[in-house]
Amino acid sequence: MPEIAYTTFGRNALLIGLISHVAAILVAMTSASGGLLFFRIVFLFSCLVLVMGAYGELRNRGYNPLKDWRFHVIAALTVFPLLGPLIVSGLLYSLQKRGQEVRVRVSGLFSAIFRMKANALVLFVLIIALFLLFAVIHSRHDPYFKRRVLNGLSTQSVLVAEQHENKDSRRGLMIDDT
Fold first, then answer.
1. Is residue 3 part of a domain?
2. 136 and 160 share one domain
3. What sign for the dihedral angle of Cα 48, 51, 55, 56?
4. pTM
5. 94-129 exposure pattern, b = at least 16 Cβ within 10 A, e = fewer
6. Is residue 15 part of a domain?
7. Which domain holds residue 15?
8. pLDDT per residue over 46-92, tens digit each?
């Protein structure tokens, strides 16, 4: 039965690329502040990881990826939102080892996507990293957090103004503007 990825590196890279690709698109569709910056960082990361996984898999199957046009097609197709990882998976599924005659069907592709397993620790670290990146970017660009910082500064300036006012009132220099 043909698989999308046979090596551990290929399975981990392709699944990480797929998950981060979906995460980037989901955050970009939300109205969260900083979503565009998160999308730019994570989408670029996902495309690079998908290309690295495809390179490793093609290398393992006996192809020379840098000289083969199929790798360049895969690298170009990774940038398509939503469809890119599915097309990459389909192309890798259809490109089996040289000399291996296997019937490739679309229904087999979808079952191969669900059979693709990655290291649980790697996936856990990826999800935590995506969450932390989202939290850091969101907290830096969120108007609520900016307001808290401004309120913190204004509290200090109010305290300084009160100190000056107290010094002036002790001297009898209290000026009434009315």
1. no
2. no
3. positive
4. 0.76
5. ebbeeeeeeeeeeebbeebbeebebeeeeeeebeee
6. yes
7. 8-141
8. 999 999 999 999 999 989 999 989 999 999 999 998 899 999 999 99
